[in-house]
Specification:
Blueprint (H helix, E strand, L loop, with lengths): L2 H7 L19 E5 L4 H14 L6 E4 L5 E5 L4 H9 L6 E6 L2 E4 L2 H14 L7 E9 L6 H16 L2 E2 L6 E8 L2 E8 L6
Parallel strand pairs: 6-7, 6-8
Antiparallel strand pairs: 1-3, 1-4, 2-3, 5-9, 8-9
Helix pairs in contact: 2-3, 4-5
């Protein structure tokens, strides 16, 4: 399937970005491992996802040591649970990517607000934003965190609490891609 067809087949926020192609369309998971252990981590991911019922799994090694993107034809939450259900020796962490957009601040703001509101962020709840930036597509991670935090406060009336948030907005930037997910308290990455 062509990248454009993959993009068109994606659900809302998954690999779509107003006609701009992404370098690796619709990854559903970001996984990390120790540098040099990517091949073994890939096998663990494949085993876990196959056990979880997935087929047609593709693991993409990024240019960053120890960072893998996983494309699988299932919702990111389901893929995340499949990976979390298996004990792994090489995979260090896994983040479900509920939205993937171009690594541009406005696109990240729109997707983050949409996902957070859909996850139930509202006045009376607390949230935190964590951004991990790899590459030079954006300014600093702190800039992204502040901008997204401000947009979420304005859109939802929720409060920022970096110590004990009810919801955590995770933003993973890899070159021209930004993957975003919302995790509930205690649901930290695997």
């Amino acid at each position: 399937m062509s990248p454009r067809a993959l993009q068109a087949a994606s659900g809302p926020g998954e690999g779509r970005d107003a006609g701009k192609q992404l370098s690796f369309p619709s990854p559903k998971l970001l996984a990390t491992c120790l540098p040099g252990k990517e091949d073994k981590a890939e096998l663990e991911l494949l085993d876990a996802l196959l056990l979880g019922g997935a087929r047609d799994i593709r693991v993409h090694k990024t240019r960053y040591p120890g960072v893998l993107l996983v494309k699988v034809p299932m919702p990111p939450e389901q893929a995340y649970e499949a990976v979390r259900s298996v004990q792994m020796a090489y995979v260090r962490s896994v983040v479900p990517l509920q939205a993937v957009v171009k690594a541009e601040l406005q696109a990240i703001l729109r997707a983050s607000v949409e996902l957070a509101l859909r996850a139930g962020l509202r006045a009376g709840l607390k949230f935190a934003v964590r951004c991990r930036r790899r590459g030079k597509a954006l300014g600093s991670s702190a800039e992204v965190e502040r901008a997204v935090g401000k947009a979420l406060v304005e859109a939802s009336g929720a409060d920022v609490d970096l110590e004990r948030p009810d919801l955590l907005v995770r933003i993973e930037v890899i070159d021209d891609l930004a993957g975003i997910c919302i995790l509930k308290a205690g649901e930290d990455s695997a």
